[in-house]
């Protein structure tokens, strides 16, 4: 039985990928300014805008975000007029990070002013572990009338994860691995990042699965003595991250030089920090960093999203 067509708005990049993964791309009528994948959805009306500039340094962006939050303001604005004109049946948003996307409270406030607000279903996601992400795919699919497809997509993704973990289990070592969530100040990858590291055959250090990203000093980073450092700032493409190569080489690489760490830079915007289907590709990239001797195929596959810094 074919589910009736819905008018869907996604205000979260990872949710947009979920909507498309379960076959509902044609019903997506609006997106956020950060929704950029898959390519087919880029022509949809954009309903959000950032109140701070993304063009400054990591330090400047961090300061701007903290200032906005301190004033109890939202980091993102919602185009309520267009939202009303699109007359959505379902809005998918998040309740995890006020920096990542429009907050649930902002969406509720906007919907409260819509003429047909009683008929709008709000689906809010707040994953902190991999199992939550896979569960969110089923939640979104069910909300869109595609529960069976949601279960199939989840099973396919989990099977790919198991296959990678089985390959990683053949490694003779488990390197100590740190992932960098932000450059200045230095933040380590929490939530699902330690799980990705462990599945890739590494030992996560400095952060705990399911917990927020901790902020550390360069001295504290040095004390972790990582064998591998994966730098993938939240919201930054590989090219954007490399614009601050000086910080990576002087602060991060300088801190772990005594440990002789291998340092990789990757795309933290498309991968790693986007809790959707492409976390499996993120695991592939992580595996190529942690055990390059076992995962050369993934290094080749993700050449465009992975850069190894020369050893000092």
Automatic annotation (TrEMBL):
Native source organism of the sequence: Pendulispora albinea
Protein name: ABC transporter substrate-binding protein
Alphabetical list of PANTHER family matching this protein: VITAMIN B12-BINDING PROTEIN
Domain of life (superkingdom): Bacteria
Gene3D superfamilies, per database record: Nitrogenase molybdenum iron protein domain
InterPro entries: ABC_transptr_periplasmic_BD, Vitamin_B12-ABC_binding
One Pfam family per UniProt: Peripla_BP_2
Domain Fe/B12 periplasmic-binding, first and last residues per copy: 7-294
SUPFAM superfamilies registered for this protein in UniProt: Helical backbone' metal receptor
């Amino acid at each position: 039985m074919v589910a009736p067509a819905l008018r869907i708005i996604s205000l979260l990049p990872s949710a947009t990928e979920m909507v498309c993964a379960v076959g509902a791309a044609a019903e997506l009528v609006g997106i956020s300014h950060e929704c950029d994948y898959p390519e087919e959805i880029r022509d949809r009306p954009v309903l959000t805008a950032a109140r701070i500039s993304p063009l400054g340094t990591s330090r400047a962006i961090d300061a701007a975000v903290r200032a906005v939050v301190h004033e109890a303001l939202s980091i993102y604005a919602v185009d309520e007029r267009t939202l009303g004109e699109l007359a959505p049946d379902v809005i998918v948003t998040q309740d995890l990070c006020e920096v990542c996307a429009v907050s649930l409270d902002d969406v509720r406030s906007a919907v409260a002013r819509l003429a047909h607000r009683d008929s709008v279903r709000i689906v809010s996601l707040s994953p902190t572990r991999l199992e939550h992400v896979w569960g969110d795919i089923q939640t979104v699919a069910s909300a869109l009338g595609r529960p069976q497809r949601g279960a199939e997509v989840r099973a396919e993704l989990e099977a790919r994860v198991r296959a990678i973990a089985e390959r990683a289990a053949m490694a003779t070592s488990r390197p100590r691995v740190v992932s960098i969530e932000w450059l200045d100040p230095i933040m380590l990858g929490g939530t699902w990042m330690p799980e990705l590291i462990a599945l890739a055959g590494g030992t996560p250090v400095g952060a705990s699965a399911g917990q927020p990203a901790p902020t550390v000093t360069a001295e504290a980073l040095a004390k972790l003595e990582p064998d591998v450092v994966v730098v993938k700032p939240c919201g930054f493409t590989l090219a954007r991250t490399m614009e601050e190569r000086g910080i990576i080489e002087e602060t991060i690489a300088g801190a772990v030089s005594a440990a002789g760490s291998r340092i990789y830079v990757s795309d933290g915007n498309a991968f790693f920090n986007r809790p959707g289907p492409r976390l499996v590709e993120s695991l592939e990239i992580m595996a190529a960093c942690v055990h390059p001797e076992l995962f050369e195929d993934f290094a080749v596959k993700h050449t465009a999203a992975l850069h190894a810094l020369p050893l000092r």
